[in-house]
Amino acid sequence: xxxxxxxxxxxxxxxxxxxxxxxxxxxxxxxxxxxxxxxxxxxxxxxxxxxxxxxxxxxxxxxxxxxxxxxx
Length: 72
Fold this sequence. Notes:
This protein has helices at 8-22, 26-39, 44-52, 57-71. By secondary structure, the protein is mainly alpha-helical. The longest helix has 15 residues, at 8-22.
């Protein structure tokens, strides 16, 4: 999916979803995922992809690179 088409807010949601999958605490993970889902609109397919790609270094790098572009 093309991350460049998403708003910065939606990219941050994906970042948090990846973090939730990689986090050690199941309780914290569930809480973060719940928060991301209730605050995201029209992002379901991207969130599902983020969960599946959470351990894919290339996906994480692409997400990180896109967020860095937005900071400047």
